[in-house]
Write a structure and sequence with these properties.
The chain is an all-alpha fold. The chain is built from 14 helices and two strands; from the N terminus they run αααααααβαααβαααα. The protein has a domain of about 240 residues: Glycerol uptake facilitator protein. α9 runs parallel beside α14. It is found in: Membrane. It is a multi-pass membrane protein.
């Protein structure tokens, strides 16, 4: 029995020493499979910014130096009034971990109370002064560039023709070229300065966000001072570049003796300012838009809104350059040329429009986005519940 068993087994040849040296190494053993450690097919519907912010909050104090360095510097504090950000870069007011940050930066979260809005301790924050300095630089660039491409001799424009009206005149062709340029320029500047100061570069936006409870009073004062100073310096640079005081700029001129009264200019300015606030808040400051296009396209849409409103009001009334919609811009133009008697229009109209818009914003606040149907537009991935076990088998 034993001999027959040995006879049926094949003879195994033992490898020699040389064969053992050149033998290929055996593959490593396969790792043990753990179903509980596998990654889910779909991740929770959370944006990358939310995940990074949550991870940072779990490990670091939001006001610590290490946390600020991780956020990219000392000037990256959240700001509810950041134009184009759609309140993506804000903190949760109900989170106890943000209490220390909100004491220093109350407008890091929206819906400020009256006490938080007028908290004067913000004047002692160095970062707010630095943000105002960046606002000065951005306003200076925008006012000079947007006024320079619309500059023309200070002479009354021609009257509309009998056949084509204003469409064949220079005061129509000028805004037709300047409006797209300013729209692109503004969008690029918002991308450039938005992370530091919020990229208002316009007293209308700053006043509008203040009445909408997105900006504190200290930030309002510092930003207005920076914007007005930048506009004045830009006006002096315009005079130096043009080598004359006899010039006018689209959106900042009115010849009363040619049939357009100041009351008409004031009415147009109020309506245009209100429409611009509605558009800017709708595409650049509405938290519900985060799930549609987010902060990546917000600055572009804000630039398109400004360009559209400038072109909409530029050529309808004779001898009127259209709505300014930026008090700092027209203030700088008047510093470089001459102050007319109706220059108050560019300050009173934005204030009236901001108050009215703030009342509507208070009565009908935007609220938080609804994430239930956000996956239908491809912005986020829908949440999926783990598959139930069927027939006693684990789902993989």
């Amino acid at each position: 029995m034993t001999d027959s068993a040995h006879a049926t087994q094949p003879h195994q040849i033992q490898p020699t020493t040389e064969e053992q040296q050149f033998k290929a190494p055996s593959p490593p053993p396969s790792p043990t499979f753990h179903p509980s450690r596998t990654l889910p097919d779909r991740f929770p519907s959370t944006t990358a910014y939310e995940m990074s912010t949550t991870a940072t909050r779990q490990t670091l104090n939001p006001n610590s130096l290490a946390c600020r360095r991780r956020r990219g510097g000392s000037l990256s504090a959240p700001f509810a009034g950041r134009l184009g950000g759609n309140q993506e870069f804000t903190v949760d007011r109900s989170d106890p971990q943000n209490e220390e940050l909100l004491k220093k930066v109350p407008d890091a979260a929206p819906n400020l109370s009256l006490q938080e809005s007028f908290d004067l301790r913000g004047f002692r924050e160095a970062e707010l002064w630095k943000a105002a300095l960046i606002e000065f630089v951005g306003t200076l660039i925008f006012v000079w560039a947007s006024a320079w491409n619309s500059l023309s001799p200070n002479t009354p424009p021609p009257l509309p023709s009998e056949t084509s009206g204003p469409f064949g005149r220079s005061y129509f062709l000028g805004p037709l070229v300047a409006a797209p340029i300013n729209a692109i320029l503004l969008a690029l500047l918002i991308f450039s300065f938005g992370a530091v100061s919020g990229a208002h570069m316009n007293p209308l936006i700053t006043i509008g966000t203040f009445f909408a409870r997105l900006t504190t009073f200290p930030r309002l004062v510092l930003y207005l001072a920076a914007q007005i100073s930048a506009g004045a310096l830009a006006g002096l640079l315009l005079r130096a570049a043009a080598n004359t005081r006899e010039f006018k700029v689209g959106g900042c001129y009115l010849f009363e003796d040619m049939g357009t009264p100041v009351t008409s200019a004031f009415t147009v300015e109020v309506v245009a300012d209100l429409l611009l606030l509605v558009l800017a808040f709708g595409v650049g400051l509405d938290p519900r838009q985060r799930e549609i296009f987010g902060p990546a396209l917000g600055p572009i849409f804000v630039g398109l809104a400004v360009g559209s409103m400038a072109l909409c009001t530029a050529f309808t009334l004779p001898a009127y350059g259209g709505a300014g919609m930026n008090p700092a811009r027209c203030f700088g133009v008047f510093v470089g040329s001459r102050f007319p008697g109706w220059h108050w229009v560019h300050w009173v109209a934005p204030l009236v429009a901001s108050i009215f818009h703030g009342m509507v914003y208070f009565l009908v606040p935007p609220g938080e986005p609804n994430r239930a149907n956000a996956h239908k537009i491809g912005r986020v991935t829908p949440k999926t519940e783990p598959q139930e076990q069927e027939d006693g088998k684990e789902s993989v």
